[in-house]
Amino acid sequence: MSEIFIGIDLGGTNIKIGCFDSQLNLISKTAVATEADMGPEVVIDKMAQTVEKLLADSNLSPQDVVAAGIGTPGPAKYSEGIIIKSTNMPKFKNVPIRQMLSEKLGGKPVSFDNDANVACLGEYAVGAGKGVNNMVFFTLGTGIGGGIINDGKLVHGCGENAAELGHIIIYPDGRKCNCGQKGCVEAYASADSTARRATEAVEAGAQSSLKKVLDEKGKITSKDVYEHLAAGDELAKQITDGTAKALALTCINMLHITEPKRIVFAGGMIAAGDVLLNRIRDYFNEHIWTLKKETVQIVFATLGEDAGIIGAAALAKQAQP
Amino acid sequence: MSEIFIGIDLGGTNIKIGCFDSQLNLISKTAVATEADMGPEVVIDKMAQTVEKLLADSNLSPQDVVAAGIGTPGPAKYSEGIIIKSTNMPKFKNVPIRQMLSEKLGGKPVSFDNDANVACLGEYAVGAGKGVNNMVFFTLGTGIGGGIINDGKLVHGCGENAAELGHIIIYPDGRKCNCGQKGCVEAYASADSTARRATEAVEAGAQSSLKKVLDEKGKITSKDVYEHLAAGDELAKQITDGTAKALALTCINMLHITEPKRIVFAGGMIAAGDVLLNRIRDYFNEHIWTLKKETVQIVFATLGEDAGIIGAAALAKQAQP
Known about the structure:
The structure is a homodimer. By secondary structure, chain A is α/β, with parallel strands linked by helices. The first copy, chain A, folds into two domains: 4-113, 2-Layer Sandwich (Nucleotidyltransferase, domain 5), CATH 3.30.420.40; 128-302, Nucleotidyltransferase, domain 5. In chain A, 38% of the residues lie in helices and 20% in strands. Chain A contains ten helices and twelve strands. Chain A has a five-stranded mixed β-sheet with strand order 3-2-1-4-7. In chain A, strand 11, helix 9 (274-287) and strand 12 form a beta-alpha-beta unit. In chain A, helix 1 packs across helix 2, helix 3 (115-126) packs across helix 10 and helix 5 packs across helix 7. The longest helix of chain A is centred in the C-terminal third of the chain and has 24 residues, at 234-257. Chain A is globular and about 60 Å long. The two termini of chain A are 19 Å apart. Chain A binds chain B through residues 132-134, 148, 150-151, 155-165, 167-172, 179-182, 245, 249, 252-254, 256-261, 287-292, 295, and chain B through 132-134, 148, 150-151, 155-165, 167-172, 179-182, 245, 249, 252-254, 256-261, 287-292, 295.
């Protein structure tokens, strides 16, 4: 009999499901539309049916399953397995998803955590964080999410809202963040903020090849910034430097706080590649206490779009006694 | 037979030793000169003899001792029980203090951690942090030290240098810190930095009753700042505001990172009293994400100068299976 772990990435648009062996190697995966408007009962039914079909298609039996894990955006009471509400799934209110799915999976244990923590755990278990016990994780997307691994375990905090790393203030009284604070790292270094800083600079009259993009498309994306950076545009370089410095300062602070061995960046922004990574490392080494230089490895995530399902399977595995 | 825990606070000048019951109530305490120049063998011998005498004076037997704990400034390999070196005790180099003391205490288990972590654990166990599982601790002295309790345990990090909270950068490219970084919270809010900012302001010509202090004593201390604040001096108010804002920003960041339920300030600076505490709370509430207002309690430590021995006893107790 195989020992199988199921990883589920529940998003507003799609449910991604993966089937993993006990070493978290991917055996098979699939995705179905969430259809969140149908309500939690229907969605969770579909989730269980998709798990069964995936197992059957992989010549596995439901009895092979040890446990399942789910990652989804908050807010939620993770320890109780309840989605409190969801921006992308308005009908999900106080849904005891862990219990509901467990019942539909024949009583198999189900674990549950937020999407950033789950992706962090996936990178820790089998990705860029493999082999260390202390890690810090950032997702650089529309916003900035985070995760912290301390001695091999996710840090949840007193109210399960720890590791909201995008809202670390790096420039007091600086740029306004979506959260209402001023000077959060998210207000400088997320994909959205990077694009916005470029747009503002062009609108303020900065010389840049990005002006043509703004004129023609009506907006600048973070991808545009990297493409023009690669082509040698000076403004794109300045904007990327601002992103890198904000992230480097955040890395320095995290080193002094939880002292990770490795800091892992994930999300759309890492498509910028080595030019971003090297600038982060440069700023880090320039600003860090000399004694602590080279004590942390700053790297990019390696799991790509499967991080959600891998992490959810890792969550399920870690919850086993 | 009683269950006794011994707490030892090893400083460069004095060794403080306390004898505690299993609820960490202080039974008796004593202090002897460290005489660090005599070298580690002599110092540790004296430490063991002082423990024995303290037990005898308290009508207790060495057999009553369950375990002992030691707190001392770093750098050290705490998990291995070794003092690597010590600024205040130059003859202490690679001293396996945990093992040496254990042998002299008849093989009783000895625990060992740095002074800030130990004080943090003391406040957590029986002081201002009692009753919560997640806490952040700052000592505001010459520098700023820190400790983090996550789910009831100290956070040590990958190299046992976590929670160096004084070196969180709050003002990038700001005031130079002793560590070489710029803009650390220690460079604004330690007792020394508070005094230095006041001195600089007076020297730069600011109107203040502190000018007389500088002229007469040749220096301004943080205590002077508070006394003149209480007397209504405007510069003393501005300087204290700067200290409070720096600490509040650090609290905000810690809330987003490890999400403590309580943040505890200790050290000489808390003699400033409610005027400092209230300014920290005001700045915190002014700058924090609205959703997270009132989610953390910001308080002053309650154990005073016994924090070191209480924390060391708590360390010994927590290490028991």
